[in-house]
Amino acid sequence: MRKRLLSCLLCFTVLVVMLMSTIPAYGALSDSLGKVTIKTVDVKNNTFTVDWKKATGAKEYQLAYKEEGTDSWIRLETTKTIMTVEGDSFTKYKVKVRALSGKDYGKWSNIQTVTTRFERPNLAVMSYDGKLCAEWLKINKAEKYEVAYKKASSKAWTKKLVTSSYFSVSAKKGVDYKIKVRAVNGKIKGPWSSVKRVTM
């Protein structure tokens, strides 16, 4: 029993050492590394792209971001002066960047605040039992979804608001239909999904 306990403790110790070895170790704040200046933060749907100026002495950079109101920063490293981050839809983030050289690091840039928009829904459609059916993954903070559909030969779209991520409507057999969907929160509407076509 004692040997088995010692064996378990040894395995646990090895596991802890392995996990610790994957955590990057940083040295000290270096005055020789310039402070990063963020030039722009551009938002596209649920992603944001951070662009910053080169910093003196930097060999690479570390970007850190977190959802506003939380304590834990997510850190990413790059040798470039631009990085795109994929976040949740309709969410406010804090972002900052600093220079790295080996294990040393420079001062953080001023913190920027950015709010993402809705992502583009990934729409799947099919014809089933005389109905045009559509389904998509739920989008963060979407209160409703606006579905637009029409006969492929028609110019006018019929629009419906739904609260679930599924939609179906009766359709005529042998007719081609087009359908698309977007997320809605109050007066804010996200980008349309790609238009899908289905033959009944």
Termini separation (Å)? 68 Å
Helix content: 10-25%
Could you say which structural class the secondary elements and strand pairing correspond to?
mainly beta
Strand content: over 45%
Q: What is Rg?
A: 25 Å
CATH-assigned homologous superfamily of the largest domain: Immunoglobulins
Mean pLDDT: 88
The CATH architecture designation of the largest domain is Sandwich
Following the backbone from N to C, one meets helices and strands in this order, namely: HEEEEEEEEEEEEEEEE
Descriptive account of the structure:
The chain has 2 domains: 26-115, Immunoglobulins (Immunoglobulin-like), CATH 2.60.40; 123-199, Immunoglobulin-like (Sandwich). The protein contains 1 helix and 16 strands. It has one helix spanning 2-21, and strands spanning 38-44, 47-52, 60-67, 74-78, 82-86, 92-101, 104-105, 112-115, 123-128, 131-136, 144-151, 158-162, 166-170, 176-185, 188-189, 196-199. The strands form 4 sheets. Strands 3, 4, 6, 7 and 8 form a 5-stranded antiparallel sheet that branches. Strands 11, 12, 14, 15 and 16 form a 5-stranded antiparallel sheet that branches. The longest helix is centred in the first third of the chain and has 20 residues, at 2-21.
